[in-house]
Design goal:
Layout lengths: L1 H15 L7 H15 L1 H42 L14 H5 L11 H17 L8
Helix pairs in contact: 2-3, 3-5
Length: about 140
């Protein structure tokens, strides 16, 4: 707790000296590495938390890929079932139009599956942006 209360002063001090390419994250990583010999339990705890965050991040990415594949399969099946509502795009988080899509009266003639695909893309992008935190 004593160290944590000094953390803002340490970070502000590094900013005051205007050290290039030194972020709060890098300071934290250096502190954890420096504690390896001084305080092994703290070092091990922080490394296990870092591994947990990496695992959670990987899980989020793998889940998003699975959801994307399922959504593509559903939209493909719906395209075949009802060709009058055919979607011309693919489910992807890289689609630039998906982030700005807002349903308007002008979009009334847009195929319903295109609207669904755009909503799926937005949801996937939001899901992929989740950032696991170091928590107990």
């Amino acid at each position: 707790d004593k160290w944590l209360s000094r953390w803002p002063a340490l970070v502000n001090g590094s900013k005051r000296y205007n050290i290039e390419n030194l972020s709060e994250s890098q300071i934290c990583d250096a502190f954890v590495e420096a504690s390896r010999d001084i305080n092994p339990p703290f070092y091990n705890y922080m490394k296990s938390k870092e591994a947990q965050v990496e695992s959670d991040t990987s899980l989020i990415q793998n889940t998003a890929r699975t959801i994307q594949l399922m959504a593509e399969a559903v939209i493909t099946a719906l395209n075949e079932i009802n060709p009058t509502h055919v979607s011309t795009g693919a489910v992807t988080t890289d689609s630039p139009d998906a982030s700005d899509f807002e349903e308007t009266d002008d979009d009334a003639d847009m195929p319903i599956l295109d609207k669904a695909r755009i909503r799926i893309n937005r949801a996937l992008r939001s899901f992929r942006s989740l950032n696991p935190a170091l928590s107990d």
